[in-house]
Design a protein that fits this description.
Structural class of chain B: alpha/beta
CATH superfamily of chain A: HPT domain
CATH topology of chain A: Four Helix Bundle (Hemerythrin (Met), subunit A)
Number of helices of chain B: 14
Structural class of chain A: mainly alpha
Shape of chain A: elongated
Helix content of chain A: over 70%
Distance between the termini of chain B: 107 Å
Number of strands of chain B: 7
Distance between the termini of chain A: 12 Å
Number of strands of chain A: 0
Number of domains of chain A: 1
Strand order of the largest sheet of chain B: 2-1-3-4-5
Order of helices and strands of chain B: EHEHEHEHEHHHHHHHEEHHH
Oligomer: heterodimer
Largest interface: A-B, 22 and 19 residues
Number of helices of chain A: 6
Radius of gyration of chain B: 34 Å
CATH class of chain A: Mainly Alpha
């Protein structure tokens, strides 16, 4: 089982570093990991879950607002601003970048542009969501097998269990 | 473990800055959670709030219960800048702003509204770790301000004998009254144009008492009632956010001195007016006495009016022996701080013009003119005598008659021209008919 644990840990490390390399997550996520400690072992999961809930609601609001006859761009902008803030909190870099592009279209009052952007944001959001969910599953497996989750640096080191 | 005082001592025995009581306000629940965790890791005591009004409620309920507030700029129920202003004015707490938007203009706006720091999101833990310095800095400045003011206060207390100086300055822990001292840093931040100068908080910025501001002040004083007036009541009524209690207090003192000076001069004038009655005709005396009331009335009006200067009405009556009565309205002599005098003889001039129209021939007009000039001379003598008593200086006596003589000369020439004009008109009318 130790070999299995090692393999799991390696897989986790590779997966995590890939996320960083692809720009799906940025250093803010590392910050979150650093905040996690014994007093709060599920901190990251909790925060990310909050993010998912809030963001889904925001995306629904955005879809509804853009589908209106007279689009209230101020409202739309406010929503996007909020989404930008939330995504930056967990380090969802791509989502954040998509939000920035969206805001530009919003200022130009370009509805087709906004709709396209919204699609982009939704895509990125779903991507980061699925990736993080996979990540958490892997972490759970590692923890269940008796290992510990690496926390430091953008390239998490694999902790070798003492044989 | 909430202490009521805002002293350096913290609930924990580890000492400052451990146990710093932070109130975190953010509508984004993700960020609020992260903030809470970060601040707890810095060994601070955290209270979180999702809404600005909840934050205000907490702050008001527990006065002195928090050391510092950290708030997001964009919030649904209240503008973050507004909250910032309220907190720093009402509770006099350091406020840190946060935002995803880290643009310079936003940062500037934050500082202008009184933020002691602006953190762009996402922020690092080390940035949060340093927020205690804002609390510390405020304390240091307060101590410094108190020490520098202590000498001044003793003087003021003995001079004016008013008790509006003793509150607040020596009870630092209380938040019920907001001492002007604590607002000094904020006031300086508002007054100082250069936002990047960190040493500006110890400089004293001058408040310019514009006409509008003074009007508000006077209105407030009259509303409260001159006897019961106090700087805080005035400040509340005036509703000028950037004005401090200190400003109002010093202005009130000046105002009191000014009013007492007016009162003295008014008493003097009444007594002088009584003396002069014997010179005028009996009819004049009756009319003059009825207008004495107007002097007092004018006095009060002046205090509530626009100008800061004394307004006095001096009634000048002229009676022509031919029954041509010049009823002049009062001429208002305004006392300025300078040597100049503005004497409005325009009313007299108007009267004389009317008589010019009435005349059939220019000759009869000129006959009337001379008594008019004689009366004017009498007026000038009145004024001169009057001024010499009140002003008590001889220098001005030399200048004033000259100016008045000049005016007289102008009027004389004007009337001459008018005569000529009438001549011409008369001739032309003859020519056409």
């Amino acid at each position: 089982m130790d070999v299995g644990l090692m393999q799991m840990q390696r897989r986790l490390a590779e997966y995590t570093s890939a996320l960083f390399k692809e720009g799906i997550l940025d250093s803010q996520y590392v910050q979150l990991q650093e905040l996690q400690d014994e007093s709060n072992p599920d901190f990251v999961v909790e925060v990310v879950s909050l993010f998912f809930t809030d963001s889904e609601k925001l995306l629904n609001d955005l879809s509804r607002d853009l589908a209106q006859q007279n689009v209230d761009f101020k409202r739309v902008d406010a929503h996007v601003h909020q989404l930008k803030g939330s995504s930056s909190s967990i380090g969802a870099e791509r989502v954040k970048n998509a939000c920035i592009v969206f805001r530009n279209f919003c200022q130009e009052k370009n509805i087709p542009g906004c709709l396209r952007c919204l699609q982009q944001i939704k895509q990125e959001f779903l991507l980061v969501k699925s990736k993080l969910e996979t990540l958490f599953k892997l972490e759970q497996q590692v923890v269940a097998a008796g290992g510990s989750i690496p926390t430091s640096g953008s390239l998490p080191t694999v902790q070798q269990p003492i044989l | 473990m909430m202490e009521s005082s805002k002293g350096f001592s913290s609930p924990r025995s580890n000492g400052f800055p451990t146990g710093l009581r932070v109130l975190a306000v953010d509508d984004d629940s993700t960020w609020l959670k992260i903030l809470e965790k970060m601040l707890k890791k810095c060994s601070y005591e955290v209270t979180t709030c999702g809404l600005a009004r909840d934050a205000l409620k907490l702050l008001r309920e527990r006065k002195g219960g928090y050391d510092i507030v950290i708030s997001d700029v964009n919030m649904p129920d209240m503008d973050g800048f507004k909250l910032l202003e309220l907190v720093s004015l009402e509770m006099d707490l350091p406020v840190i702003m946060m935002s995803v938007d880290g643009e310079t203009s936003r940062v500037k706006k934050g500082v202008q509204h009184g933020a002691c720091d602006y953190l762009p999101k996402p922020m690092r833990m080390k940035e949060l770790r340093n927020i205690w310095q804002h609390v510390f800095r405020k304390r240091v400045h307060e101590i410094r301000d108190i020490e520098s003011h202590e000498g001044l206060e003793d003087l003021q207390v003995t001079k004016s004998g008013y008790d509006w100086l003793d509150d607040g300055h020596f009870y630092r822990g209380e938040d019920t009254s907001t001492p002007g001292k604590k607002r000094k840093d904020l006031e300086n931040k508002h007054d100082e144009k250069d936002l990047t100068d960190p040493s500006s908080s110890t400089k004293k910025a001058r408040v310019v008492w514009s006409v509008d501001l003074h009007q508000k002040f006077v209105r407030a004083v009259n509303q409260i009632g001159y006897d019961e007036v106090g700087p805080e009541k005035i400040l509340d009524l005036m509703n000028v956010p950037w004005l401090t209690r200190e400003n109002v207090a010093s202005h009130l003192q000046k105002y009191r001195l000014y009013l007492s000076r007016l009162q003295k001069e008014n008493d003097l004038r009444i007594s002088y007016g009584g003396m002069k009655h014997s010179d005028l005709n009996p009819q004049d005396a009756a009319r003059a006495s009825s207008h004495q009331n107007s002097i007092n009335f004018q006095q009060n009006d002046a205090t509530t009016g626009n100008s800061k200067f004394a307004g006095n009405n001096l009634l000048i009556q002229n009676l022509d022996s031919r029954g041509n009565e010049f009823h002049t309205r009062g001429t208002i002599i305004t006392e300025t701080s300078g040597p100049g005098i503005s004497l409005s003889l325009s009313t007299l001039e108007q009267e004389m013009d009317f008589t010019a129209f009435d005349s059939i021939t220019p000759r009869s007009y000129s006959r009337r003119e001379i008594p008019g000039i004689q009366n004017l001379r009498r007026i000038i003598n009145h004024i001169n005598g009057f001024r010499s008593i009140t002003m008590g200086s001889n220098v001005q006596d030399q200048n004033l008659p000259r100016i008045i003589e000049l005016l007289l000369a102008i009027i004389r020439w004007l009337t001459l021209f008018f005569q000529l004009f009438l001549f011409l008109a008369f001739f032309l009318s003859l020519f056409f008919f």
